[in-house]
Structure formats: C-alpha cells, structure tokens
Amino acid sequence: MKSAKNPVARDVSEIIRTMPGVNLTGNSTSGQRGNNRQIDIRGMGPENTLILIDGKPVSSRNSVRQGWRGERDTRGDTSWVPPEMIERIEVLRGPAAARYGNGAAGGVVNIITKKGSGEWHGSWDAYFNAPEHKEEGATKRTNFSLTGPLGDEFSFRLYGNLDKTQADAWDINQGHQSARAGTYATTLPAGARRGNQQRY
C-alpha cells in the first residue's frame, strides 16, 4: 500500500498523478474518450479502479456527459473532495485490493479526509480552462468547503463543487480527415498467368 500526503493542488487528480503506479488516462477500457483525469492503476482502465472516500465507494464518478455521438466524456470526474480537506490518499494493488470485488481488479484508491477540529475553517476556489482551439469546450469549476465544531462532542464538514464543461463542436475532427488511394501491380514469368492489378 502506498500513501501520499496532500500537497497544494487544484483537484484530486493533481495529487494522484504524483503517486507511483497510478496513471491518469483519457480513455476507458472500451476505448471511449475522456479528459486525462480518469484514474487508472496497473493499466487495467478506470472501470477496474475503485475509488473510495473514507472507505465508501464514490458513485458520482459514473455521472458523465454524453458526447454528440454518444461517447462517454468524463471531464471533471475527480472533483469529489476539495484538496485542502484531504489528509492522505492510500493506493492498494494486487491481492490487497481483491477483497473489494470485480471493480477493483486494477486496484483501489482510498481518499482519507481530515477530521473535524475545534476551530472553524473554510475555503473557496475557482478554475477556468480555455482550450487553445475554439472547437473544444471550455471548463469552469468552483469548489468550497467549511468545517467547524458542533458543541464539545461533535463537528461537521460541508463541501461541494460546481463543474460545467461546454460541448465540443460536432465537427471538431473535420480538419483531420484524410483519404488515400493507390495501385498495386505484380507480374509473373512468361507462360504463367497474366499479371494482376489490384486497387485499394
């Protein structure tokens, strides 16, 4: 098991990418596109990497938008917890992850959040991404968090985020289309059958 303390980061993916053996990919095992922020352990794809927060599965990672051709696009799927609320991240691989079931064939990422304290703390941040090419959709994201005491025995934590990504243009790849044509010819020795010609 490997663990990482929380450095300064915009989202979970920026912490995850520093951990050995954990990759960020833009494709699922089915070949569908994403945004290079899907978590992949041992090259087995995001669908085989289980994400937990304090030991509980993250179901919101399945909330994805559909592209205009029906492909799955998972941009923004790592904004589950504000980075400043993360105590550490644990990564389990191989037999240690087997007890979590089929969805953990690649491994398990367990995000451990900080415990509440006797003091009030809060944060807010915003992020905007404007792609170089106008055909790609821009991304806007904002996160907030608030923690504080509830009497002498209890404390509470509240956090959330709003993520909005514009759709890519329907003809985003039109300029990359190509067409090929050519001929292929062979000849045979005299007396043999006539040479053939194929076109593709």
Automatic annotation (TrEMBL):
Q: Which gene encodes it?
A: fepA_1
Q: What InterPro entries has UniProt attached to this entry?
A: Beta-barrel_TonB_sf, Plug_dom, Plug_dom_sf, TonB-dep_rcpt-like
GO BP terms: siderophore transmembrane transport
GO terms under cellular component: cell outer membrane
- Record key words, sorted: Cell outer membrane, Membrane, Receptor, Transmembrane, Transmembrane beta strand, Transport
UniProt-annotated location(s): Cell outer membrane
The TonB-dependent receptor plug domain is annotated at 8-108
Molecular function terms, GO-annotated: colicin transmembrane transporter activity; enterobactin transmembrane transporter activity; siderophore uptake transmembrane transporter activity
Write out the similarity annotation: Belongs to the TonB-dependent receptor family.
Membrane-related topology note: Multi-pass membrane protein
- What ranges does the record list as Polar residues composition bias? 24-38
Specify where the region named Disordered lies, as residue ranges. 21-42
Q: Which organism is it from?
A: Escherichia coli
Protein's recorded name: Outer membrane receptor for ferrienterochelin and colicins
Q: Which PROSITE patterns match?
A: TONB_DEPENDENT_REC_3
Its domain of life reads Bacteria
Listed transmembrane segments: none
